[in-house]
Structures are given as structure tokens and as C-alpha cells.
Design brief:
By secondary structure, the chain is an all-beta fold. It contains no helices and seven strands.
Length: 76
């Protein structure tokens, strides 16, 4: 099934992921090195300034069927 992860905007995030049949969707603020083969997508995406951030969030994802979506949310 589908997985959605909500992270606060301006969070230093790195995603190391590999999908099966599904896709990987990240916010436009995360840039990546992506390799697509047939129905599989794999790559590493990270937010700008990740390397210099004091606090970092690292997500490892290995998917099967379904998609992964990372969404940025505003802090309340």
C-alpha cells in the first residue's frame, strides 16, 4: 500500500530509497540522484543544507507495491 510521511518544513531530510512497482515522490526542495529501471526507482534525495544541519532526519525505504510520498508541513 501507499505510505505518506509528513515532515516539518525546513527539516534536514535525506531519503535513501528503492521502490518496487510503486513510485517515490518527494517535495521539490529535495534534490536527488535517481536511477530508474523498468518499473523500479532507486536513489538518494536530500534537502538543501542537509550536510551542514545540526539535526538530521534520515529515512531508509525499500518498497514493494505502492508508493512512498514525503510531504512538508508547516509547524503550528
Amino acid at each position: 500500500g501507499a505510505i505518506e510521511i509528513f515532515v516539518p518544513a525546513n527539516t534536514a531530510v535525506r531519503l535513501e530509497g528503492e521502490s518496487g512497482v510503486g513510485s517515490i515522490n518527494v517535495p521539490p526542495t529535495m534534490k536527488g540522484n535517481v536511477k530508474r529501471e523498468f518499473i523500479e526507482t532507486q536513489g538518494v534525495w536530500q534537502s538543501e543544507g542537509f550536510e551542514l544541519a545540526e539535526r538530521k532526519l534520515v529515512i531508509y525505504y525499500e518498497g514493494g507495491v505502492g508508493q512512498l510520498t514525503i510531504r512538508e508541513t508547516e509547524m503550528v
